[in-house]
Amino acid sequence: MSSEKNLLEVTNLRKYFPVKGVKGPGVQAVQDVSFFIRKGETLGLVGESGCGKTTLGRTVLRLYEPTGGKIVYDGNVLYDNPLGEDGKPLKKAVSANMLPYRRKMQIIFQDPSASLDPRMTVGEIIGEAIDIHNLAASKGDRADMIKELLGKVGLNTEHANRYPHEFSGGQQQRVGIARALAVKPEFIVCDEPISALDVSIQSQVVNMLEDMQQEMGLTYLFIAHDLSVVRHISSRIGVMYLGSMVELGESYELNRNPIHPYTKTLLSAVPVPDPQLSRTRQRIVLEGDIPSPMNPPSGCRFHTRCPYAMERCSKETPVFKEHETGHWAACHLLEG
Amino acid sequence: MAEGKDKGKLLEVKDLHVSFFTPAGEVKAVGGISYDLDYGEVMGVVGESGSGKSQEAYSIMGLLQSPGKVVGGSITFEGQDVLKFSKEEMTSFRGSKVAMIFQNPMTCLNPVYTIGNQLVEALRAHDKEISRENAEKRAMEMMEMVGINNVEKRMKQYPHEFSGGMRQRVMIAMGLICHPQLLIADEPTTALDVTIQAQILELMKELQKKTKMGIIFITHNLGVVADICDKVSVMYAGKIVEQGPVDDIFYKAAHPYTLGLLRSMPRVDADSYERLIPIEGTPVDMLNPPEGCPFAPRCEHCMKICLKKMPPYVEVGEKHRSACWLRVQEYLNQNSDGREEDGDEQ
After folding, report:
1. Do residues A308 and A193 both lie within one domain?
2. N or C: which end of chain A has fewer CB atoms below 10 A?
3. Domain enclosing residue A137, as ranges
4. Do B266 and A252 touch (CB under 8 A)?
5. Which of residues 275-334 of B touch A (CB under 8 A)?
6. Are residues A116 and A70 in the same domain?
7. Are B148 and B65 in contact (CB under 8 A)?
């Protein structure tokens, strides 16, 4: 991986949540995930609920403290704690003071009503971010900034004096986006920003996110479970299953030519709004449910549900590596 | 399996009005919808939240909650007027003739009873004669039918020991245990992951073929509709704006709202990037609905008349109708040309 144009580089990132009264590492939410994001691109993350995509997004921002691995942002090490085979740290962990980076790295949450303080007006919510980072020279300047932000996300200036409950879900999400943009960030983690919205509103917000990216040169980590939306907005997509990244590639390449069995299943399971196509389409239906991340299967974590599982899959963890240029996957089948 | 009849009308809804009398005023959640459903037919009801798609289904089941009320119209099921049922008649109708499954199975299952217990209870509530052993046997058969393994062990487990997909299977088993003619599925796959959603959809299709029951499938996901439905009703602000066979709705959509929905969704099988075309504006405030066509304020083709009067339905194809002034205009133009009205093909 060349570090020249990469805004974010993540290596073997791991996040475990200890569980009280249970021996062992607890919930293994993110297991040794590596990827990078280029400046100005959108990396999509898909996977089913509980696969660790949200945890990954938050750990990258260090809203959750990582268990191990390395995060480099724009050439600066945010966190470095390499782990050995046995999961013990190899050396003393390095972790940077995050405050200066908070200005550059922001997040938009899934549930807009839960992520806005109900007792603050929209103006106060957006203004708070400006105050924390001392971005406004004067009161008038601050008010102008808030007005400009509201206009940018398609709200009216008089909306600044209203409370979150006075808005519809789509408008609340716009406030959430305005808040994230208030500090003029470079990188935004969009954590399921549209799944709580109505169908007709979703496309409005998707278009707005695309416009913002163009205008401000933003880089996105776009997390969603809806593959069609992720495919639409992302230049590259990472597919996660039970805490591990199983495949990563250019968005259209991944769609045309998925190489990991899980990605194939996921693609075939997405319902297509085309009746004739869905009558003829072959759908791969997986047996069973996702195993618990408390006690994940040995070897390849997908082997319990994989239609092509071999003996080797339950013993050895497949290595996540580049099979074609820019197309990464972790599967024993690909190694022949 | 008690098979349903194959032909004829199973359900007929005529000009149904449902209102909620709230302190802030009357909310006309369902404003005069009509449709019918044949035996063994699968109808999709698509719409956004607040479009009245669930309330319409609840009124068939007599499950409308206060302050909601059916204020007009009729619901006829196998020739009987459902709205005139007494409380007892409704109780026996519900479950034995019509069953319902919901979006969130956890809230529908009682956490302190075993799954087996709840299935048996559902059966014995409607079949007073059946012995406990027979009921248990039937419950186990149903669980096998919906694809649950280890039935004997599973019968003794509690809802929290089941995953989301498995709970939805239990709900389907419970719904079908009395062999209803009609299953109302209210967003049954919305809370599930795509791979689990695929499992449940396959299961429902298979069971539908086997039992020949009618299904009303309520969802906001057009992909799911394309997959499972024979015909579709598109609802907006308490009204059915378009209704027709599934292929017509997807390939010959005649209402701007339907078209808008189809255009605004990214497709997973698209070959290249295309910018989405959203429907501008926000959904209708049901307390103060606009006059005329409810979609008019968001419609790109909005004309003067749209803001004043609700358009009538125009047949735009076989069993395909749409409520839009544009179609009314086309219809009038066609007829003034002296041509026969032969379905609208463009």
Report:
1. yes
2. C
3. 112-184
4. no
5. 275-280, 282-283, 298
6. no
7. no
Mean pLDDT of chain B: 90
Q: What pLDDT score does B172 carry?
A: 94
Q: Determine the average pLDDT of the residues in A174-198.
A: 93
d(CA A282, CA A50): 26
Torsion sign across C-alpha atoms B176, B177, B180, B185? negative
- Best probe of the B interface among A156, A174, A203, A237, by most B CBs < 10 A, is A203
For residue A234, the distance in angstroms to the closest alpha carbon of chain B comes to 10
Q: Residue B4's pLDDT is what?
A: 46
Q: Do B264 and A286 touch (CB under 8 A)?
A: no
With CA atoms as reference, the chain B residue closest to A154 would be B281
> Does a structural domain hold residue A207?
no
For residue B251, what are the β-bridge partners?
none
Same domain? A10 vs A90: yes
- Top-confidence residue, B3 or A283: A283
Q: A204 and B271: CB-CB below 8 Å?
A: no
Instruction: Give the nearest partner residue to B261 out of A200, A252, A268, using CB atoms.
Output: A200
Asked if A262 and A165 sit in the same domain, the reply is no
Instruction: Say if A124 falls within a structural domain.
Output: yes
The DSSP symbol for B249 reads H
- Shared domain check, A192 and A180: no
Helix (H, G, I), strand (E, B) or coil at B60: helix
Last-in-domain residue among A123, A158, A184: A184
Q: Which of B194, B271, B298 sits opposite A269 (nearest CB)?
A: B194
Nearest CA in chain A to B224: A271
Cα B187 → chain centroid: 8
Residue of B nearest to A167 (CA): B282
- pLDDT at position A198 is 84
B185: enclosing H helix or E strand: strand B182-186
Q: Is the peptide bond before A296 cis (omega within 30 degrees of 0)?
A: no
Look at chain A and report how many structural domains it folds into: 2
Q: How far apart are CA B43 and CA B149, in angstroms?
A: 30
Q: Are residues A192 and A74 in the same domain?
A: yes
> In sequence order, which ranges of chain B are alpha helices (DSSP H)?
53-61, 87-96, 105-108, 115-126, 132-145, 151-155, 164-176, 194-211, 222-228, 246-251, 256-264, 325-336
Q: Are A6 and A197 in contact (CB under 8 A)?
A: no
Q: Is residue A209 part of a domain?
A: no
Percent of chain A clearing pLDDT 90 (strictly above) = 75
What pLDDT score does B2 carry?
Answer: 43
Tell me the pTM: 0.87
A204 touches chain B (CB under 8 A): yes
Res B344 pLDDT > 70: no
Mean pLDDT, range A266-295, rounded to an integer? 87
**Closest residue in chain B to residue A263, using alpha carbons only:** B195
Query: Per the domain annotation, does A33 fall within a domain?
Result: yes
The shortest CB-CB distance from A229 to any of B220, B266, B280 is to: B266
Establish if A255 touches chain B: CB-CB under 8 angstroms: yes
Which residues from chain B sit within 8 angstroms of residue A202, using beta carbons?
A: 264, 278
Q: What integer pLDDT is reported at residue B248 of this predicted model?
A: 96
A231 — contact with chain B (CB < 8 Å)? yes
Q: Can you give the CATH number for the domain in which A327 is found?
A: 3.40.50.300
The interface residues of chain B toward chain A in range 194-213, judged by CB-CB distance below 8 A, are: 194-199, 201-202
Mean pLDDT for the stretch of residues B236-244: 95
Query: For residue range A49-70, what is the model confidence (pLDDT) as tens digits?
Result: 889 999 999 999 999 999 999 9
The answer to whether residues A47 and A142 belong to one domain is no
- Per-residue pLDDT band at A2 (split at 50, 70, 90): very low
Share of chain B above pLDDT 70, in %: 95
User: Do A329 and A227 share a structural domain?
Assistant: yes
